[in-house]
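The authors assume throughout that readers already know how a fold can be written as discrete tokens. What matters is that the chain and its backbone geometry are given together, residue for residue. A single example would do more here than another paragraph of explanation. For illustration, here is how one protein appears when written out as sequence plus structure tokens.
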Amino acid sequence: MNPTPRDYNKASVLDVVLSHAPLTRNKLIELTGLSKATVSRAVEELRSDGFVVDGGVDAVAGRGRPSTYLDVPETAGHVVGVSFGAVTTGVLVTDLRGREIGHVIVPTVEHNDDPAAGRWLVDLIAQTSASARGPLRQVVAALPAHVRDGAEVFRPADPMKIFSGRDLQRTVEKLVGAPVTFDSDANASLLQVLTDDASIHNAALFSVSSTLNFATCRDQELARGRTPAFGDIGSLSSGIDGRTLNGLLSTGGLVKFAREHGLDIERVEDLWLAPQDHRGRAETLKAFTTAVSTAVSIVAVTLDPESVYFVGRLHPLVDEVLPEVRKRLEQTLPAIPRITTVSQILGLSVARGAVQACLAKAHNRLRDGLLKARSQGPRQEQAAPAF
């Protein structure tokens, strides 16, 4: 049996409820463009499926019957966003409306193989999801790496080289028993930026931490290439002594450069504390400024973004050199995009972006599942929501 117009109407109502709840029936009718009778029928079916509950009353002044808010119950399921970084790992659990159920931020434990790392991640997910109700619908894990097809890891940060390939994604997915997608930390960060500011349409983002990662969007849609070469901006020349962009716009690369120029530092944060008049610090900032200018120039002339964002552990240094970067770009480009840094909560901000990806995937899967349910015949009664 093929889906009927009634099924598609129900799917449209589900889409809007998942994306906009809590909302009144009148608002639901407005957003779907469907008739009052059609919406009422779909709401009752979704209520029976376990995806809609009454969530309170809209206290409307004046005459008329108060409207009941429709909401998504916690029992409809939950999603998990993971920021699996070289230094810090964060796990954020929300329900299907994006309401936080719990989060945890811990130092990343060093592992020697994929199975051990997978079990560690899954244990963190289980601990953070302990109070969640309903099925686990989706996990998205963001890494400082390039990721193809949501599973295959390429060129991760040096401390995470053993995770190259697909084995880690397969391990996690098998252990959690739910769909698991991997993505880059840059993509997750850009998703969070887009969520925070819906006016952004075309943008680029550099994640400058343990490795240099890059993301871009067009009309608020993340751009994804066909090969791992897409977005590998870190392999391009920085314009300084044959060094790559990743060699100057990553924490490890910048520390190495600073040491070579006379700064005795262990961590990149020590660079902030070095004397302003130290020659080595001046040389390091000069090289860093050139690398930032080069990176922005590349995306400005090839992608024409409205805005360019910098996130990650090096963002304080980007703030320091931005006036000089803008000055250089104004001398070489006819127009420059808006360049800004975004402060992040280490281990949590990227996880929030991963949750946004989770919610989009889970909502689409539920809609598709509703339409496929028609061809599978009547469903058996069950405590958990359908689809």
Q: What stands out?
A: The two ends are 16 Å apart (CA to CA).
